[in-house]
Design goal:
alpha+beta, 4-stranded antiparallel beta sheet, Alpha-Beta Plaits, 6 helices
């Protein structure tokens, strides 16, 4: 429907129109009918109120059966003596000193970390420069194997594997991955 181009409806006269004379309006019919009282709801509410009042009265009657409150003097006279502690470990722990025997770590062979192995020396030197930018010093060593000449980029030696792991984590933060830690063997 086109609301913009529609024609306005003609105004109705203030009097009743001929079509509405014989029919009672819905509003007037509802006002003339008496409202029905919901007797079931009223009976249910009264029963619940009676049960609530009965419960309150039964609880109130139990308050008379409580014993009388003793005075402060009677309360202190009736307290039992303080029990003795069954355990003595609390005092013993306060005065003891713990001695721990820590065996010295056996240092294994020194460790080295290899970060790459290349056929071209220029590739090895490029990786060595990236490692230098991460703040670590590396070496390029050539090794002759069954497959020919290889250029290995190594770091170390490290006394412990933990020291090598610490530097490998530095390299990983600099996005240099693939470094392996081995026992020192440059033969």
């Amino acid at each position: 429907m086109d609301y913009a181009n529609r024609k306005p409806k003609p105004k109705k006269k203030s009097g009743k129109s001929s079509g509405q004379r014989g029919k009672p309006s819905a509003r007037g019919a509802a006002a003339k009918q008496p409202k029905q009282v919901p007797w079931v709801a009223i009976v249910l509410v009264l029963a619940l109120m009676a049960a609530f009042i009965y419960g309150l009265l039964s609880i109130n009657g139990d308050g008379d059966k409580l014993p009388a409150k003793p005075t402060d003097q009677q309360a202190t006279d009736e307290l039992p003596p303080k029990p003795k502690e069954k355990w003595q470990y609390i005092q013993e722990l306060e005065s003891k000193q713990v001695e721990v025997d820590v065996p010295e770590r056996e240092l294994g062979p020194p460790k080295l970390m290899q970060c790459g192995s290349f056929r071209k020396q220029s590739d090895a030197e490029r990786l060595r420069a990236e490692i230098a930018m991460a703040g670590l010093e590396s070496q390029v060593r050539s090794s002759e194997g069954k497959n020919g000449l290889w250029y290995r980029v190594i770091l170390g030696p490290y006394e412990t594997k933990r020291a090598a792991e610490r530097e490998r984590h530095k390299l990983q933060r600099a996005k240099i991955y693939g470094c392996a830690i081995w026992n020192w063997n440059l033969d």
